Amino acid sequence: MNAVLFLFFQRMRVPLITLITAYAIATLGFTLIPGVDDQGEPWRMSVFEAFYVVSYTGSTIGFGEVPYPFSPAQRLWTIASIYLTVIAWLFAISTIIALLQDPTCRQVIEHARLQRSVRRIKEPFYIVCGYGDAGALLTHALSSRQQRTVVIDSDRNRIDRLIVEDLGASVPAFCMDARVPENLIEAGLQSRWCAGILAVTGSDQTNLKIAINSKLLNHRAPVYARADRRATAANMRSFGTDHVLEPGVEFCRRLRLALTAADTFRLHHWLSSGPHATLPGAEMPPQGRWVLCGYNPLGQALHQTLEDLGVDVTIIDNGAHDAKLPPGSILGRGTEAPTLEEANIHDAQAILALTHDDADNLSILITARELNPELFLAARENAGSNHPLFEAAELDFIGRPSLVVAGLILSQISTPLFQKFIDLIEAEDNEVSARLLERLGHTADAGPPLLRTVRISHRRSPAVARALDDGEEVLLDALCRDPRRRQALLPVVPLLLNRGDESWLCPGPDIALVSGDRILFAGPRSAAAQLDKLLFMDRALNYVRTGEDQPGGQLWRRRPAQSS
Hints:
Radius of gyration: 35 Å
Strand order of the largest sheet: 5-4-3-6-7-8
Number of strands: 20
Distance between the termini: 78 Å
Number of domains: 5
CATH architecture of the largest domain: 3-Layer(aba) Sandwich
């Protein structure tokens, strides 16, 4: 039985029985008490007539004495029936009002409404588990791309915050534990429209359970799961989790790039940190001695990365972690000047604050800046709500795990070729990234460029596919031309061309396209409509290729020219 109906009948059992009993007694009385008809003869109401009189009497509508004027006895019973049925109605209505105000009932009604809204979704949607910093970024970004989402979070305050936010589309938001398999099913996990599950809560164990349940209940839907610890990540991969996002590993990767290939790091960070990422400045971390505050798992990984690069590192930690501190470490929090001075902060070139407390991280860096104004200041930002404080502190670099996770997931969802592009660009010299940044520079002020994968096929690019079927040559340059003025180039840059097992980084304009090619483009959102014209409109594609503006459509394309 529907949960709402079950709860209603459970709570309304006594009021309904009372109301039915009151109506039955009143109806019975009217059938037993005799009256007088218009001929002066005694008469009695039928059950239907009695119920009719009780219906308008009990509801206090009032409709007169029908079919004949009542006798004194009937009028006396009418008075008794009015008080009896009205009291019964008041009892029932007050119970209904109390039921609607009951938190359990409201939760059940809201839950049923959300289930109906999920069942009505007839387009691909993603289930976002955890509406923290990463979950909020993903939900907003996907909604801005007209991509449907369903959110699960056990924190009522977060769900209430989501409800009042203007996302431009309806987002069903369940306040429940995503670790429970039944809850995932209610959120649409087994729907054929479920395009993926994003497990981005702040707990590794929760993300692990979500990933396991999702793969068992719907192995077709890809799972994107966050893992802060390497053991959890290895566990996720062992049973086939599609995409495991490790902020610590990604931070180490970016730190290594920042110290060895500055422009490659800037490009990577800019393209993979979400829609609101900013292009890092040209000033990169120095190679000299570093002071690292916080020897948690992230601190241990970054310490190992710095040591592998030959960077001298001094650790400051309060000893609360299980890992043994390296020789030469300083015991303390780092928020006090004496501790920093003991770490010889005056001779250091950079300081990295990695504690789990944002207030401590800011205190460490502000104190360190007072002792050594020339320091390169970097910090880990744990809560997105504190971002204005970190910006006000004017730090050189802010590491935001939630932003890293959200950016990686978005890039993998929207552009499957992105990871291949990153792997190839990291294998190239830094100068390749520097030149690419110059070509993409037109979008630097407006955030990162929009990444888009174009596939040469009859479904994704029918105009190009038809031209190839006709034996015509279509160069990559044609997809970079403005269909309104062929001499002008669109503000798009082809980052990668994939053909079978081969891939070309930054392919040249003279490459001839073949069916099945996949091209990764980067450019502003405003260029998307013009690129679509080239992909879908024969007339536009023919114009940029030949300079001839011919009538569009298949009928005109294939009609032979008539001689005069």
